[in-house]
Structure formats: structure tokens, C-alpha cells
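Narrative of activities, Objective 1.

The group set out to show that a structural description can be obtained from nothing but a protein's sequence at a throughput compatible with the screening campaign. Below is one input-output pair from the validation batch, recorded exactly as produced.
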Amino acid sequence: MAALDQKSPNVLLQSLCCRITGKSEVLKQRREADAALFSELHRKLQTQGVLKHRWSILYLLLSLCEDPRKPCSRVAGYGSMFAQALPRDAHSTPFYCARPQSLSLGHPERSSTLGTSGISSLGTHTLNGPTLTPQALLSGAPAQVLGDSLRQPGTRLAWTLAPGTSPSATAPTSRGPPAPPALAARTQLRPRRDGDENGEIAESALVRDILYVFQGIDGKFIKMCTPENCYKIDTKVPLSKSLRDLSSRLSELGWLHNKVRKYTDARSLDRAFGLVGQSFCAALHQELKEYYRLLSVLHSQLQLEDDQGVNVGGECSLTLRRLLVWTYDPKVRLKTLATLVDYCQGRKGGELASAVHAYGKTGDPSMRALVQHVLALVSHPILNFLYRWIYDGELEDTYHEFFVASDPTVKTDRLWHDKYTLRKSMIPSFITMDQSRKVLLIGKSINFLHQVCHDRTPPGKITPGSKDIDSPRDAAELFTDLEGAFQGKIDAAYFETSKYLLDILNKKYSLLEHLQAMRRYLLLGQGDFIRHLMDLLKPELARPATTLYQHNLTGILETAVRATNAQFDSPEILKRLDVRLLEVSPGDTGWDVFSLDYHVDGPIATVFTRECMSCYLRVFNFLWRAKRMEYILTDIWKGQMCSGKLLKGMPELSGVLHQCHVLASEMVHFIHQMQYYITFEVLECSWDELWNKVQQAQDLDQVIAAHEIFLSTIISRCLLDTNSRSLLNQLRAIFDQIIEFQNAQDALYRSAFEDRKQQREGEGEWGVSAAEEAEEKKRVQKFQETIPKMCSQLRILTHFYQGIVQQFLVLLMSSSDESLQFLSFRLDFNEHYKARDPRLRVSLGATRGRRSSNI
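Output recorded for this entry:
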């Protein structure tokens, strides 16, 4: 029997079947044909996957074929040996699983849908062996005795000690002849008596010690060794190696119990551990409760043996080997719990739930059921946080366990951007990043509606109602369909809340209208308004910046609005349009400090933040300066057209005027190409992308992201980012040359024309007197002497301008943006600069190939 006990359940089943109904019994009766038939039938029975308890089937058939008038055979002995199963109350299944089918139909727990967590026994699903059979059935005990034994959970370990039976009656018969008395005496342990130091310790004493160790209490012989952190038997105690090894293996269960118990005792009173941590401790307590239930049954059986005087080593007594078999499944479960305790050290909240969830990915059904049961308890507070957040917008996370964090110091105007964030470390592993982002947006949208938009609509009318997680069972059912029911709840709340928020912003606060106003006024999209405003502001902005007054400029702005199509805009938009003067530097004129401004507040300030308005201001200043260059070149062209006929009578000026016309044409071509690039390739294309994204946006975050991408694009493609600083410096130098050319041409025309004649005629005097005519001749002669100087100044100006443009084209060619490279081809359409600089002769295809090879 010792050899059989050391085998696995499958090997034990096969050996038992062969020893009970094997071929040897049939061959002794000289029935070879029946033996062959039995072998074939037994082989077919083993290959059947439908039958789970083949041993029980064989035993039933054997019992039916035996003559009841014959005395009990050795089959009863073997049956009683393997009938030492734990009572039904000690058996349990994983949480929310059904009870074993071996329960009677009338048992009250058979109809229950909830079970225990299953740490107290092997369970019928763990071992691959047969269902253990009580000896009361084998020995033919009356039904009343069997019923009484099933009703007494504390005595079901003593099935073989039922009334009317005796230990000797249930002893197995040997397959061979009885052993000699001397040999039998040698095989029994010699009990240890007082004063007898050489006598070995009785196994019953070790069993009693082991039961104490199971509870974390030192026994008489087995004690905790603190330096080695394990239970050990003193080496001086006389004990055989086999019993010492069995005791060490069983003591591991006590060590695992201590590890789990120490963790729960330390954390249960720690309020900072949070609700999730307390739920984890509650799950561990529940498993320990089932474990204590097993120990109480074992203690009850041991006490029953003491009361009835069962011999040590008898068939019905507790032995170390039986304890090893019965505690196999509890040991596996405690090992799992101890591993969880180690892995969860220092974790809390969603991080703790992720650690538990990671251990559920296993192929062992019993271990997976245990982890799922613990996870259902642990995740219950998290799901309560989640549903209260997405349906009510409330966040009561005292111990910072939820993956949504709130900063109470943030003001209302920054609620959407800064108040609520994700704690990525607290996101449970069973919740994806996309789901957590939607959860954050749902609750943030509800709070934004209430606190910023001042919308008093109850949350229940915004999002469809849903049942909260009332119990861990609801959480367990939810985990079985994370991509179905759970995802559906989050998506429904996300779409309803986001749609309602966008409707409020668009209809009540006119978000899209304000966005179009930014395009028309700050990005110079309202052409007639910008042109008329520039005409009205020209006298004022030509003055030094220190002499400007904002109220004067504001009056001019209102005049420009009333005189153009801007007057048809909404009053809500026009009242936000204002004038802003930048910081004044020495030597600045009004053109350098003037800027338009657009006031934003309330919910729309969430989209048009201070950073965004700063970007709009930078872009406006760049576009306003470029528009001014176009305005200046228009004035230059008008001056040339008006003065050309008047100066036709002065042939000495023809060269100078021709040079002015050529330089002005180059500048007009450059500015027109730059305006085309900025207006169509940058602003219009980026605006079209922004408008499409805003129309398709599903939540406010997508609107804000699209708007920020729009501003970032125009900032970079208008050469206003840090990577294009050299290009912007060259472009500003070109603008400065245009202004200098305007001043030079105005000086030329002032020298060529004298308005003194008109002044004298206005006073009623003769236009020219003799003295004045002589003076005029001297002035004309002096002017003719300055013509060569003017020509040299224009040549220097032209050379300097073309050098700056040439450097600008080289920088455009070396840019990684292909649109800027195409701009260089349009600026140098006749390859004038390409002939002067070899660096401009590289084709676009070669540039792209070189950049690809570098990558």
C-alpha cells in the first residue's frame, strides 16, 4: 500500500483496477477466453472520453456480479482505503461554479448558484482519478447510517468507523499468505516512551504537530526556524528519513499560510491601502476561511479517532500520506495566493488589479478560476469608480486608486486641459488605452458641461442609464465579455456625451462661427476689409509708434467694418474684434506695432487658448507685413505710371527710370509668388483640412487637436518656426529692401519735381520771376549732377536685393519641404539666379534622392 500511495492518481487507478478485476483473477480459474475478453473490454473502456469515473463503473459492475452471501473480499479493503475522502462540506468549487454532481438532489446547496472559492480540498475537477467512495457504501451500511454520516460534516472523515463496523472488519486482505508475526512486529513503529531516547516518534504525534503547523503554530517537534524561514524538525529527534521528508513537505503548507496571513494582517488595518487593496485582503481572507474549514474537519477527525481509540496506522486513522493527498489542492491554491502576495507588494489601485489579472493567463483551469475569483473582488471598487465617473461625472478617489486623476487647484478656464488626467500606472491591464481615454473624456465632458457651459441637464438625460456593479459576481460576468458588454457601455456613454457637448458648443456658443471669424480677420481672409483698413490706417501708421493712440485706431477699425462686407457679421463676433499695439522698440513706426486682436472667453476659450491666440498673433504680423509689401509695391507702380510721362522730357533720367522699372518688376514678381504660396498653398489647404476634421470630430479633444495641427502647420510653412529662422531672416531682409527702394524712388521724384510753382500760383503771384528762373536753372543743373550718384545707389540697391534673393533661393532648395522647393522654381522661373549660382542648378529629383540616401 505504501507503494500505491506514492503513485499519481492515474497510475493508482490503473493499478487498482488490475488488482481488483485484472486478468490474474480470471487466469487462476483457468478462464483464458474470459481474460482475453476482459482485456479487450477494459481497453475500450479506457479509450472512452465520455466516462470520467471509470473506476466507479468497474466497481459497480464488480459489486453487481459478486454473490452477496459470500464474505467481504479484499475489494472491500481496497475500497475502504481509497474511501478516505474529505466530507462533502470540505469539497468546494471555484467561485460562481456549480457544486459537484455527486450531491444528492435534495441537498439545499445543490440549487444554489454561488459556491465557495474552493481552497479546502482537492475537488473533483483537480484530480484525474475517480470519485472516492465511502466505505459505508462498500460495507453495506444501512441507508439511515449513510444519511446520518452525510449530515454530520465533522465526522465524514471517519466513514469507515460507522456504527456496526470495526477497524478489523474493514482491514484489507493480503494478496499473498499472511506475514510472519516477527516480520509484522518489525514493520510497526516502536512508540516512544518517557525516558526512552532511542524510540522513534509515533506518526500520530507528527500528525498532530502538522495540524498545528498548518495554522502557523509551532508544534512539539516541528518548529519555525527563523534564520532559515522554514519549519524544521530538530535533528536530535529520532525519526526515520521518510517521515522526516513527509513532515517537511507538509510543513510547507503552514509556511504558505503564514505568508498570506502576515500580508493580510499587515494590510487590513492600513487605510491608505485603499478600497482595491482592502478588497484584495478580503479575497485572501475568504480563501483562508475555506482553508480553516478544512483544518477544522481534520481536527474533528483526529479528535474522533482519539475518542474511539483508533489504532495508529489503521485504515481509518489520519496519516501523513493521507494528509499529503488531501492537502495537495489547498497547497496549490495557497502557493498561487503566496505568489500573488509577493507580486502585489507595494502596489495599489489599478496597478494591483493589473498584477492579479496577469496571473489569470494560465492553462490550469483551477488556478485560472481562483485568480478570476480574486480579480472579481479586487476590480469591484474600480468598476464602481468607473461607472460613477461616466454616468455622474463624480470622482471620489480618496486614496488615488482610479486611473483618472483630478487636480483641485486648477481653475475653471483650464478644466478641460489640466484638471483631469490619466494615471497610466493605474490603468488595469484588462482595460485598453483607448477605453481609458474614452472613460476620461466622458467624465470630463460631464464636468465641463456643468462647470464651464453652465448646462443644468441631468447626466441621466445625456447618457443612457445603466446598472452599476452591485456585487463581485457582476464584475466577474463583465470580465467574461470585456470586448462586448463592457465596450458597448463605454462606447454608448462616450458617443452620447460627446455629441451633446459639441451640439452645445456649436449651437449655444457658436464655435464654428468664431473659427471662421479667426480665418477672416486674423488670417486676412476678408480681403475688402483688410484693403480698406490699410488705406485708412496709412497716415496713422506712418507716424512713429510712440505717437499712436489705441482709441484712434479703434475708431478707424470701426469705420472699416461699417464700410465693407464685415458689417454683415454677427454682433457677437464684431464686438470681439479689437486693436492691439505691440511693445514699442526705438525707431519703430506704427506699421511695426499694429495688430488686430480677437477676444475669447467662456467655453470657446477651451479651443482658442492663450497659446493658440499667440500663434494667431504671430501669423497675423507676418501676413500683415507681407500685405504691406504688396501695398508698397502698388504705390511704387502707381508712382512710376504717373511720373513716366512728366519726366519723358528729361532724357538724362531715362536710364535711372528704366533701372527703377526693372527692379520694381522683380520685387512685384517675388511678392506675388510669396502671396500665392502663403494664401493658397498654406492657408487655404490647411483650412480645408481643419474644416473637414472639425466636421467629422466625435469629441472636443479631436476638435482641439485638429485646431492645434492647423496652427502648427501654418506656423511651420509660413517660416515662423525655429527650423526656418534663417529663411525668415532673409525674407525680412528682402522686405526691408523693398521699403528702402520705395524711399529711394520717392526721393528721386521729389528732386525731379518742384512744387514751388504751384505754391506761388496758389498765392495769386506769377509763377516765375527772373530771379526765380535763374535759381531754377541752378537747381536743375545741380540735379543733373546728382543723377550719376542716384544711378550708383540704385545699382547698389539692386545688387544687394538680388544677393539676398539668391541666398533665399538657396535656402529654399535645401529645405526638406517640397512645397518650398517648388516655390524656389516659381521665384526663379526664368533661371536668372540659377545661371549666377551653381548651387541652384541641382534638380529637384537629385535633391530628393540625396535626402533619401541620407535617411
